[in-house]
Amino acid sequence: xxxxxxxxxxxxxxxxxxxxxxxxxxxxxxxxxxxxxxxxxxxxxxxxxxxxxxxxxxxxxxxxxxxxxxxxxxxxxxxxxxxxxxxxxxxxxxxxxxxxxxxxxxxxxxxxxxxxxxxxxxxxxxxxxxxxxxxxxxxxxxxxxxxxxxxxxxxxxxxxxxxxxxxxxxxxxxxxxxxxxxxxxxxxxxxxxxxxxxxxxxxxxxxxxxxxxxxxxxxxxxxxxxxxxxxxxxxxxxxxxxxxxxxxxxxxxxxxxxxxxxxxxxxxxxxxxxxxxxxxxxxxxxxxxxxxxxxxxxxxxxxxxxxxxxxxxxxxxxxxxxxxxxxxxxxxxxxxxxxxxxxxxxxxxxxxxxxxxxxxxxxxxxxxxxxxxxxxxxxxxxxxxxxxxxxxxxxxxxxxxxxxxxxx
Length: 408
What we know:
By secondary structure, this protein is α/β, with parallel strands linked by helices. The chain is 30% helix and 23% strand.
């Protein structure tokens, strides 16, 4: 399946964003740990959250998380403490994504986990039982999802958990999101320096409502920046959100987009000339990188982005994917040190009628689709990948005036 997109001349639209899968997936784990009987309101309707819901509902000892990395990590930790025996697996790409850091940490805390395929990667066989807990040392540069997975089950460990994070800590906002949600469920952790302590404590059941997704909002900021004229209202966002990707509102001011906050969301308007060169360290907002790479190139703004080390182990190697697909459009990107990506303005001959590969990565599809605003059209391969986080993305683009021609 391919979608060929052509764009409207101007955009004036109200969009109801999907709810946050980051919050939804944490809430599902915390709801289970608190033995909460209240349903979570406003849960995300995306693949990553559906596989979590299925895991809790279907009662099977075989759990397939498909391409959901967050679900794989959170459920591995959750199942390690829960009496029983499970096999947890996923897509072929998931079977290549390292999970040994989390497994090693859980094993040192009393878990019993075996690899059923490639060492260090899913699928896993988990024999769940009560965990002792204690003290562990982790590199701060590992995925924050490993750290969050451990933190959420820490209060139910016999001795609680102390995590010493070594070196530079990446994706801090996601760790703070986890700790903030744990506090809403009645457990307060202690974070001082690079040490996080969680004492044995019972979670308390709460009524939880999930807010809209700031990561999804980033594509509408991109659309506003690339359009000639835009007035876009995004429902369900809050200024004081715990989501790290709420940083997108501040960052896009340098790309000519002004954010106004209302009682139930934000309004985006074009504010003037963007910066001549864009620099940013994405260590705390790695999921925004694709949005800003595409936006800057399409606006002709050279950039230097650092802090991208986690992009190598996402749904795909996002650094390499960005280099390959932007080259089709005539942009030469260069990377270094597995964490830096830049464009200095170098161009090459663009392909005629390029088709953008999505690499089973929802963010590749959503970040590249707005290019239609700067070209006659753009074609996206395997557009269904957006179901991972934003199932209604194409419908919302259509509402905003984009024309989508679908071909097999």
